[in-house]
Structures are given as structure tokens and as C-alpha cells.
Design a protein that fits this description.
Elements (H helix, E strand, L loop, with lengths): L12 E4 L7 H7 L5 E4 L5 H11 L3 E5 L8 H13 L4 E6 L1 H14 L3 E5 L10 E6 L2 E6 L7 E4 L9 H19 L6 H23 L4 H20 L4 H13 L3 H16 L4 H10 L6 H11 L16 H10 L12 H13 L14
Parallel strand pairs: 1-8, 2-3, 2-4, 4-5, 5-8
Antiparallel strand pairs: 6-7
Helix pairs in contact: 3-4, 5-6, 5-7, 5-9, 6-7, 6-10, 8-9, 8-12, 9-11, 9-13, 12-13
The chain binds nicotinamide-adenine-dinucleotide.
The site of nicotinamide-adenine-dinucleotide has 27 residues, from helix 4, strand 6, helix 5 and helix 9.
Length: 365
């Protein structure tokens, strides 16, 4: 029997396909926007300017100031710039940092955002915003920040370096993994999550082997879209909480942290999430132990598999475990979160060993 569920679709358009940047002016025009501010990271200023050229008269300017986790001072400057230029909307081109800056402007000024994603992070599909002040990141959900239209052009991902392609792709897989055991998953969410994992697991080795393989880039971005959509639709669990705590407390890089933690958080939850394990097994070619397969995949992709590699010290782990357990009421997890369990999985992630239980097929005690 199908369990009862409530499914809410979000009001947004998705335009997908190689060359679809050419459709951006029509997307902006369909929203009635005539003066948009183009947002990007400093490293992607060229891409931002290319997008502004594609927009022609509809571009009011380019602000290449997006930074990871949206520092509040950058948000203030961007809001002021939007006002000064009389912008009536924003086009955010880049990864989660650029999209996050667009959301920060939308939150304050209600300007519509059009997103042109160039990583696999998935922020463009969610109504979740984040702002960082004094080292503390606040997040919230607000439909006003949800991009109205998302233009996925895999050609714009050709320049994403192999390392970031791998970790950003695993970051997307993490959204789907946690969606599969989320309390608010629906049959549609589960289908999308499974297909997202399948597409990314198939595409990422090809992307890393040859970054100019447009077919592989296209499949990876299709997977990332699905993973972003299920992130928006569900409540994330222990894995996302651990990455949030690690990122905030130790200022770690976002996608790399997800990559090192995911196999261990999944191994912790697998015994309590049989349907998610079955879906992940199908997505990963029949694997009996998806956590182990994701750990091996990260190794094949040459991605960091240990928190130690990211600069975490062993003595930092108890504080991270305390914070993750203390935040336990703010997230959903299929398996009760215990201090010992979290400490043990963090230690495995720190050391970069194979996830617990996977060698012997035994669930963690
Ligand atoms: P990012 O946006 O910080 O980008 C990382 C780097 O890659 C930047 O230097 C950027 O300029 C560069 N880059 C991006 N695309 C490129 C390309 N195609 N070619 C060459 N260089 C490229 O990284 P991210 O992982 O996409 O985003 C991380 C941020 O997004 C974090 O702050 C995270 O919290 C947030 N995020 C938010 C949500 C949400 O729903 N709100 C979801 C996922 C991530």
C-alpha cells in the first residue's frame, strides 16, 4: 500500500540543455524584467560579463562579489548596488554563492531572481537562504527567494575544475540520499532522488576523466537539478547537520566537507532506512552497501575522503559532535542520534577509513 503523503510543487520554471544560455533573455523578458543586476563570484567575472552581454539592454550591471555563505556585508553592498542601478531583478550566475547572494537581495527587496547555475550545489531549486555574520550562519526558508526561472546550460559547467566537479557532484548526491529517508519524502521525491543519484554516479567519473565531455556534463547537471529539487522538498538529516556544524565551527569548504562526511553519515543511517538503501542500491548498480560504494566513488574521483585532509584536527571532533547532538531537535533523522554514534562516525570521516559496518556488512552498534 502507498503510505499517505502530501506533495507540494514549487512555482518555478526550468530551462535545460546545452546552449540554453541563449534563452536567458526570453526568460528574463517573460518575467517583465528590464534592468537586471548580474551576480557572480570574482573568479567568474568573465562568465558574468558574458551573461550580461547575452542579456543586452536588459542588463543593468555586473556585481562580481559573491562569496561563500553570503557574508552579511556583501549582501548589504549588493542590495545597495541593486538600488543604485534601479535594478528590477537579478540574474545569479555561478554556484551556491552567487545564487545565495541573489536570494539575499530578494529577501530584502523582493526582486525576482533568475538563476544560471554552474556547479551542482542545487541552491537554485530551493527557497532556503543563508546569511553569515560574525562567523555565524543564519538560514531560513522564504518563497520570495526561490528563483522564478532556472536556466541550466551544461556548456557553462565545462570550466568547472575536476576537483570541484567531483565534490560538488557528491554534495548533490547528499541531498538525494537524505531526501530518500526524509520524513516528508513522497513517491515523486523518491523517484527524483533515485534518478538524481543514478545520473550523477554515472556521469561524475566521465566528467572527471574529461571535463570537456558535454554529454557527461549534461547528465551530471540533470542529476544535480533533481537533487536540488528534492533538497527543496524535504527535511534534511544528520549528514547536512554535521556539514553545517563543521562548516560553521571550523570554516571548512562546503562541497569537500559533504564529500568526506556522506559515506559515514549514510552508514550510520542505513540500518534504519531500508527503503532508502534499496533505492540507492538500484541507483548504484545493485550495490548491497551504498555507503561503501559512495566512499569508493569518492576515491575513484580523487576527491578528499578525510576531514583530516581538509585541515580538521582530531581534537576538534568532540566539539563538533556536541554541537551536532545539541542541534538534534532542528533536523530529522531516521536513526536516533547518539553522542557516541556521532563521535564514532566523525572519527571515521576524519581518518578517511571505509565507513563502519561496510567491511563486515554489520550495522554500527
Ligand atoms: P561556490 O558557489 O562557492 O563556487 C565555488 C567556486 O567555484 C567559486 O570560486 C566559483 O567562482 C567557482 N565556479 C563555479 N562554477 C564554476 C565553473 N563552471 N567554472 C569555473 N569555476 C566555477 O560553491 P558551491 O558549492 O556551488 O556553493 C556553496 C554555497 O552554496 C555554500 O554557501 C552553501 O551553503 C550554499 N548552498 C545553499 C543551498 C541552499 O539551498 N540555500 C544549497 C546548496 C548550497
Amino acid at each position: 500500500m502507498i503510505a499517505p503523503f502530501t506533495h507540494q510543487s514549487l512555482p518555478m520554471r526550468v530551462v535545460f540543455g546545452a546552449g540554453s544560455l541563449a534563452r536567458l533573455p526570453d526568460e528574463v523578458g517573460a518575467l517583465g524584467l528590464t534592468r537586471v543586476l548580474v551576480l557572480c563570484s570574482p573568479e567568474q567575472q568573465d562568465t558574468g560579463e558574458r551573461v550580461a552581454r547575452a542579456l543586452g539592454d536588459r542588463a543593468a550591471g555586473v556585481l562580481p562579489e559573491a562569496r561563500v555563505h553570503v557574508p552579511v556585508e556583501v549582501a548589504h553592498r549588493a542590495r545597495a548596488r541593486a538600488t543604485e542601478l534601479g535594478a528590477d531583478g537579478c540574474v545569479a550566475v555561478g554556484g551556491g554563492s552567487a545564487v545565495g547572494l541573489g536570494k539575499a537581495i530578494a529577501l530584502a527587496h523582493e526582486l525576482p531572481v533568475v538563476a544560471v547555475p554552474t556547479t551542482y550545489a542545487g541552491s537554485e531549486m530551493t527557497p532556503v537562504w543563508g546569511l553569515t555574520e560574525g562567523g555565524v550562519k543564519r538560514t531560513g526558508r522564504d518563497l520570495r527567494v526561490l528563483p522564478r526561472s532556472v536556466v541550466y546550460d551544461p556548456e557553462l559547467t565545462l570550466s568547472l575544475p575536476a576537483g570541484l566537479s567531483a565534490t560538488s557532484g557528491v554534495n548533490a548526491v547528499a541531498h538525494a540520499v537524505e531526501a530518500l529517508y526524509a520524513p516528508d519524502a513522497t513517491p515523486i521525491v523518491s523517484l527524483m532522488a533515485e534518478e538524481g543519484v543514478r545520473a550523477l554516479a554515472a556521469a561524475l567519473p566521465r566528467v572527471v576523466a574529461d571535463g570537456s565531455d558535454l554529454d557527461a556534463r549534461s547528465e551530471a547537471q540533470y542529476g544535480a537539478w533533481l537533487c536540488g529539487a528534492v533538497l527543496a522538498a524535504t527535511t534534511m538529516g544528520l549528514h547536512h547537520e554535521l556539514c553545517h556544524v563543521l562548516g560553521g565551527a571550523l570554516d571548512l569548504p562546503h562541497a569537500e566537507t559533504h564529500t568526506a562526511v556522506l559515506p559515514h553519515a549514510l552508514a550510520y543511517n542505513q540500518p534504519a532506512a531500508p527503503q532508502a538503501v534499496a533505492a540507492l542500491s538500484r541507483a548504484l548498480g545493485g550495490a548491497a552497501d551504498p555507503a561503501r560504494v559512495l566512499w569508493e566513488l569518492a576515491g575513484r574521483l580523487g576527491a578528499p575522503r578525510s576531514l583530516a585532509e581538509l585541515g580538521v584536527r582530531e581534537e576538534d571532533l568532540p566539539r563538533v559532535a556536541d554541537l551536532a547532538v545539541a542541534g538534534g531537535s532542528s533536523y530529522a533523522n531516521p536513526r536516533p542520534v547518539t553522542r557516541d554514534g556521532v563521535a564514532s562516525l566523525l572519527h571515521d570521516a576524519w581518518a578517511g577509513r571505509a565507513p563502519a559496518g561496510s567491511q563486515w556488512g554489520q550495522p554500527r552498534r
